[in-house]
Design goal:
With 792 residues, this protein is α/β, with parallel strands linked by helices. 50% of the residues lie in helices and 17% in strands. Helix 7 packs antiparallel against helix 8 and helix 19 runs parallel beside helix 21.
Length: 792
């Protein structure tokens, strides 16, 4: 049936009365994604492990924008999460300690500790330079010296009683025997009587024990002095700095971890007073760094819970890392070089990741799973986690994790991960699926108009007049490939409006007109249509041998769609068929050359089933037929050419010419019913371009399945030629309808006698098959007679 012009013109019956989009109330939020929105709301209500969200949809449907916008609004109702800091671990320096504080307290603690370390070092220095401290230390030294003096006096007295004098030198204690009031030399001692020598030897042994005891007491006095001096220093320092620590502890008394940490800092200060008093500035700076605070998560300026979108989800960008610096050719690090990752920043809120980017980065997906399964964030550099590094590194204490992760993916990636990684089912129990189209009804059109108006308001653009809005809706339906639907690829629509605005401004238009939108669409298509133009130039030069006039036997114009990442367009293709005597069946040349996809191979088998059901009931099939897509050197996939292939085969078998000015697209089942196909608009426009390149005859057109009529969203050039009768669209429901259009003959119905109407296409096919059968049988009989003669 021929489609009339009015049946092909795009109309939106639900447009309200308005002059420009300025009269339309801007839409709030996103449109047409109620299913996805409900899924997200469900996930947010369930605060349990595993209820993270997989956001699935085609690129351009606003997945990330919707999720980010929705979560940002939702997060405002939530409390701001805690700050996190890493501090020096005095008991185990290789494992920096993680401490959480109320939002805003982290930066305060960092500032307080910087001031405290400065004040402590300054006060310690002043304390030990004070007169009071010098006086007390002098008293302690005097007391110590008195005790040491008494001790050595007692030693000298006991030595004198034993006949010795004692001298204290730098090398130790020296004893000298005294006889008759004079010191003895070794030679003089040897000249004394034996009984005297024996006495001195005995007394020398006694004196040695006394000296050892005195030295032990002296060392004990030294230790007591040092301890008392340390206690004095500690008391003096504590008296000075204790008030500082008491004051800061009072500020954080509600946080046990901070108070405990401050106590350890205080104890460390008191234990290292000598270093803090040192004039070595590097040593002082070392202690200042030790007492500093590494604020890795600061939520002081955050309103509600965090919503983090990590654009580059590498392993370290997710889990954080420990950085190093080089000094003297040695790699060094400390707790101040611990850096936060996206999990730290999103903790207590939401983390949004794009799966395609996540999977590109080694071990990033494993990092996400490990964090969600363990419910904690462990900072460990990748080289250390994999055991590839021998550099000694820190092992920061893990931080508890409370985050809901939203993964954004295309359907293909989602289903692959869901099938091959069982952790996906455990960790991402909620699927938020984005639709790519809207049913065209009054409510949805109203929402769509609101989106157009809000786009103009958001980007401060001039508004669109009514005709421009209608063209935008036309473009949306073309993206959806259905006149009864609207595309939800709102990013495409928004960018088209902005391009049209740029054109309107160049023309000094105060509103965006239909012509501005048309020009924007043309410019957009021109930018991506280089390959299409190359095909068109080959068709014009007849390098691609497409016939758009005349009649041919066994040849039909089929239609294919070239799918590029940013553009798709239709291209006519010559489908030829040949029939000859031989083994019955259809040989698909593409399939034999391994250039046929599975769906196309199935379509060829369907064709064989159709021929068997329609014609083999009358006469056995005794011919072999071949089908070929001429000048096609890539893979053929899909079943949209099966209708054209059947017509080409019928034409080849019955020797009936087929009109070359008509192209055919449509799938077919074994009963001959024509089924809908994809890309019908691109196919029609592709053959229309070919006809214009070769010259319009007024009888050219395309046969499409009737069920595809709603999918036609044709451009103005095609519609203009249809309106003027230079180009035509025919819709068919059965193969016989297409046969009659392309051959100009009746397809032929079964009569009461079981045959087909005389002169019909089906009748001629049966006759051709019967003739082929007779030839085949005669050939067999002739061969048998020859064999019989030879045997005689």
């Amino acid at each position: 049936m021929k489609a009339e012009y009015d049946d092909l013109v795009y109309r939106c019956p639900y447009l309200p009365d308005f002059s420009t989009s300025a009269e339309i109330e801007p839409a709030q939020g996103f449109i047409g994604q109620e299913r996805a929105k409900k899924a997200v709301e469900t996930a947010l209500k369930i605060n349990e492990k595993g209820f993270n969200v997989f956001v699935v949809g085609l690129p351009g449907t606003g997945r990330r924008s919707f999720v980010t916008s929705f979560l940002q609004k939702y997060s405002l109702k939530m409390p701001a999460p805690k700050d996190w800091v890493y501090v020096y671990n005095f008991s185990n320096p290789s494992e920096p300690r993680a401490i959480s504080l109320e939002s805003g307290k982290g930066s305060q603690l960092k500032s307080d500790m910087e001031k405290l370390s400065e004040e402590v070092i300054e006060l310690v220095e002043k304390t030990f330079e004070s007169e009071d401290y010098a006086s007390k230390r002098s008293e302690l030294e005097d007391e110590y010296m008195r005790k040491k003096t008494v001790l050595w006096q007692e030693l000298q007295e006991k030595a004198k009683e034993l006949g010795f004098a004692v001298q204290i030198t730098s090398t130790g204690v020296v004893t000298v025997p005294i006889y008759d009031g004079k010191p003895l030399t070794p030679e003089t001692l040897d000249s004394l009587p034996d009984n005297v020598k024996e006495m001195f030897n005995e007394n020398s042994r006694k004196l040695k024990h006394i000296i050892d005891g005195t030295l032990y007491k002296s060392r004990k006095l030294d230790r007591e002095y040092k301890e008392k001096l340390k206690d004095l220093d500690k008391y003096a320092a504590l008296f000075t700095i204790g008030a500082l620590f008491d004051e800061i502890k009072k500020q954080y008394e509600s946080n046990y971890d901070v108070v405990e940490y401050l106590s350890t800092v205080e104890n460390d200060v008191l234990a290292n007073l000598s270093d803090l008093r040192s004039e070595n500035e590097d040593l002082r700076q070392l202690y200042k760094k030790r007492y500093s605070v590494n604020l890795i998560v600061d939520n002081s300026e955050l309103q509600g819970a965090p919503v983090i979108f990590e654009r580059n989800p590498t392993y370290s960008n997710l889990a954080g890392k420990v950085e190093y610096y080089s000094k003297g050719g040695i790699m060094l690090t400390d707790f101040t070089l611990i850096k936060a990752g996206a999990f730290h920043r999103a903790n207590g809120g939401f983390l949004i990741l794009e799966v395609e980017n996540l999977l590109k980065n080694p071990y990033a997906w494993e990092c996400v799973k490990r964090a969600l399964l363990s419910e904690e964030i462990t900072i460990e550099n990748l080289e250390n986690a994999l055991g590839f590094s021998n550099v000694v590194s820190l092992r920061p204490q893990p931080i508890p994790l409370n985050v809901k992760v939203f993964l954004i993916a295309s359907p293909k990636v989602y289903y692959l991960m869901h099938a091959y990684d069982e952790d996906v089912r455990k960790l991402f129990r909620v699927k938020s699926e984005f639709d790519w189209e809207l049913e065209m009804n009054e409510d949805n059109v109203k929402k769509y108009l609101g989106f157009i108006s809000s786009t103009c308001c958001e980007f401060k653009l001039p508004h669109l007049n009514r005709e421009a809005v209608e063209k935008i809706l036309w473009y949306s339906s073309k993206l959806a490939a259905d006149r009864g639907k609207l595309s939800v690829k709102l990013g495409e629509i928004s960018s088209l409006i902005r391009e049209a605005c740029s054109i309107a401004e160049e023309r000094e238009n105060k509103t965006i007109t239909r012509q501005d939108v048309v020009c924007a669409i043309e410019q957009r298509e021109e930018r991506v249509s280089l390959i299409q133009e190359k095909y068109d130039s080959q068709i014009k030069a007849r390098d691609l041998m497409i016939e758009t006039s005349g009649n041919k036997i066994g040849q039909v114009n089929g239609l294919t769609v070239m799918e590029l990442s940013d553009h798709s367009f239709g291209v006519p293709v010559k489908i030829t068929a040949r029939a000859h005597l031989g083994k019955s069946g259809v040989v698909d040349i593409q399939r034999e050359a391994d250039l046929s996809g599975k769906i196309h191979s199935k379509a060829v088998l369907t064709i064989e089933g159709f021929f068997g059901e329609r014609y083999a009931r009358h006469v056995p099939l005794s011919i072999s037929a071949t089908i070929n897509f001429e000048q096609v050197y890539g893979m053929i996939e899909g079943d949209s050419a099966s209708l054209a292939e059947v017509i080409a085969l019928i034409s080849a078998i019955a020797k009936i010419p087929v009109k070359q000015e008509i192209a055919v697209t449509g799938s077919m089942n074994q009963h001959g019913e024509v089924q809908p196909v994809g890309g019908v608009t691109e196919k029609v426009e592709g053959f229309h371009r070919a006809c214009k390149l070769h010259g319009m005859t007024g009888s050219q057109g395309v046969v499409i399945p009737k069920s595809n009529l709603k999918n036609l969203v044709l451009n103005d050039g095609v519609l203009s030629d249809i309106k003027q009768g230079r180009f035509h669209i025919w819709t068919v429901e059965h193969v016989d309808d297409a046969i009659e259009l392309l051959t100009g003959k009746k397809a032929g119905k079964l009569t009461k006698t079981g045959g087909y109407e005389r002169g019909s296409v089906n009748y001629l096919v049966i006759k051709a098959l019967q003739k082929a059968r007779e030839i085949s049988e005669n050939r067999v009989k002739t061969l048998k007679r020859r064999k019989t003669r030879k045997s005689k």
